[in-house]
Amino acid sequence: MSVKSAPYYWLVCDHEGCEAKSTEGGDFSAWEEEDSAWEEAMNSEWSEVAGKHYCDQHTLIHDPEEKRLPAEWEVVDDIAIMDPDGWDRKNFQESWNTPITYDDWRSRMIRCTVARPLREWKREAGK
Predict the structure, then answer these.
(1) Are 37 and 11 in contact (CB under 8 A)?
(2) CA torsion angle 47 18 108 115 (round to 10)
(3) Average pLDDT estimate for 99-109
(4) Which residues, 6 or more positions from 33, have their beta carbon under 8 angstroms from its beta carbon?
């Protein structure tokens, strides 16, 4: 028996700091054909946005069309907005209850005072 090698394929998440591979949790560690690697990733809820590939954990935040309420983006980023400087204070309830994209969320959130992580803050506050 001879040992042979060939190029094999899998996807790696392009989200900064994420090292997820499309083969994690699957039956195979790599695919012989690039199309098979892509097909398996799509069946695992991966996505392609602007030529980059994202795992199921990061697909949502890179979809430019996805809109959610700010409270839902808090959960995604695991933070709590403590002082909402990025929102319209005169019409805060309306502003806070309007669905926005992740990019809008990030641009507003960076102007706010936040607590991290959200789950610990809520536990301490009894929420």
Answers:
(1) yes
(2) 140
(3) 92
(4) 9
Measured CA angle at 75 (ends 82, 77), to 5 deg: 80
Alpha-carbon distances, residue 82 vs 74, 109, 115 (angstroms):
11, 10, 7
Look at residue 124 and tell me whether its pLDDT is greater than 80.
no
Q: Dihedral sign for Cα 73, 78, 81, 85, please.
A: negative
CB-based burial, 30-63: b 16+ in 10 Å, e otherwise: ebeeeeebbebbeebebbeeeeebbbeebbbbbe
Mean pLDDT of the chain: 85
Q: What are phi and psi for residue 32, nearest 5 degrees?
A: -75, -30
pLDDT tens digit sequence for 74-85: 888 888 899 999
Tell me, rounded to whole angstroms, the distance of Cα 103 from its chain centroid.
Answer: 12
The CA angle 88-94-97, to the nearest 5 degrees, is: 105
